[in-house]
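Help wanted!
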Amino acid sequence: MSRNIDVHGLTYQPSTAGNPILSDVSYSFSEGHMTALLGPNGSGKTTLLRHFLAQIKCPEGAVLIDGKDVMAYAPKERSRTIAWVPQNSSGDSAFTVEDVVLMARYPYKSTWEGDTPEDLSVAQEAMQTVGVLDLRKRNFASLSGGERQRTLIARALAQTTPWILLDEPTSNLDIKHQMGILDLLKKRVDEGAASVIVVMHDFNMVERFCDRAILLNGGKVVARGEIGEVLVPEIMRDVYEVEFEVVKKGEKRLFFPVREIPKE
Amino acid sequence: MKKEPLKTSTLTMTGGGLLLLLVIVVVWAAAVGSVSVPFSQSARIVCSRLPFVNKEKLLEGVSKSNKLIIWNIRLPRVILAGLVGGGLAAAGVVMQALFRNPLADPQVLGISSGAAFGAAVAIAFGITFTVSGISSIWMFAFVGAMLTMALVFRVARIATSRSLTGILLAGIACSSMLTAAITLLMMWNKEKLEQIYLWMLGSFSSASWVKVGFMAIVLAGAMVCFVILGRDLDLLSFGDQEAQSMGVSVRKTRTVSVLATSLLVAAAVSVSGIIGFVSLIIPHIMRMLVGPKNRRLIPLSFLGGAIFMILCDMISRTAAPPTEIAVGAITQVTGAPFFLYLLWKERRKEERN
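Answered by r_m:
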């Protein structure tokens, strides 16, 4: 059986007075892809991710992860299926980087079980992969923004889930680390180790690394599918109110923002 | 990786050292008082109640009055002080973890004020009786604390669907309401003013084995909950959403730990009065020594809190005989400067790095 995250007619309206944050969103995220979740600020991207994590219970529509309603998962079972890299971590604790990464092994443990050699080696490998192994004895609170972000990515990798959700994982990273992180995620996808859904704002990076995209605007799905079907200058112009110029560079395209389109 | 074994041995040494210190402090505190008993005799009397010990041989040459003083008067008091101090410190760790705030303190839940109100009612209306070792003031204090706890949760649930901030705000509101009520009770019963005030300052002078037993049972239950939930509390330091994404049942963890903390604090305050600062300072000191992992921090804070409280109680009854100084005043007088010193030292360490 292939793995899927199926979104069926998801509508989310926290208060009856305001506009819905998500309205009738449907999409099937299938395994083996690195899917970009696109949209302007406030278009509902993070809210959609929060539904995947069962952080929001929704009266209308449903999210099925691998065929099972997300609300029906036991907490630990869900955490063995789906990992999450938040945009900003609220953690400001005295835990070391190693402690933080080891926390990801929680859903694999019974109450009294300590850290097994397997846990330690999974954590070590995850830290190595994102390049925070040297920082492992440092306090999480003392890290820079980029180091924290990489630690959280290492934590998500150590959770060894078939699905990884990332909310703007590269927002605090320099270009080298951006490339590094996206490259390693793509490698995971290509190896069949995990499927990735990632919120991003940089179209050139999306073009370079992702192979699927879904574009939200005002809580509605505007475009979805292959990158070429979503990153279309006309669609982007309508959604972002910015005009783009597209330059072909080998197989890939480059997107230059040319000018802002004034609102009528 | 080379540093790993060193860290484990530091932990064992801290734990072992504190345990040894606790035993010494218990025996010492039992020996010191208006009638001075030699340390060795005190140790022998304490040991005589252990199983598999030849009691007659051990107690040879110990006078009957010394035995009575230590066993019936001092030891219950010393052990009660230890249980209350340790319990408050452990509760402090859990509160700080739950609220993700280093200043969170069990008192903000309003439970202490509830206990004080119960005690004040019993004193002000002259309700004094004792049923099988349980005094009316103690009973009223515990019931007052439990009722306040129920009220706080009830209000919090109505107001903000049981969020932590809701509980905090409801606790603060109930607390100031009850403090006002206590003030009124004191104004209308000026002749009881001193007794109410002294109860609120905290004391172990009314300790008994019944109180020790009661406190020990509640404490054991709460500690089991705390240690089981220790790892969940670690993950909760990253906030509800992140903890949930890693598999923590956030609501269950919170409900159980808030209830266990409340019950523990209610029991502690009802047997001793309001003793501040232990629940704030001991967790901080222990965190500096052994790090933030709650499964070790909670038991070690218990040991630290117990030692600290026994010493403070010893000072309270020996510093200015025959009067006793309120133990709550001593915890603050000794604790606050030491705490400031630690903060200052910590700051300097950070600056050097």
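OP: Thanks! One thing I noticed: DSSP finds 15 helices and two strands in chain B.
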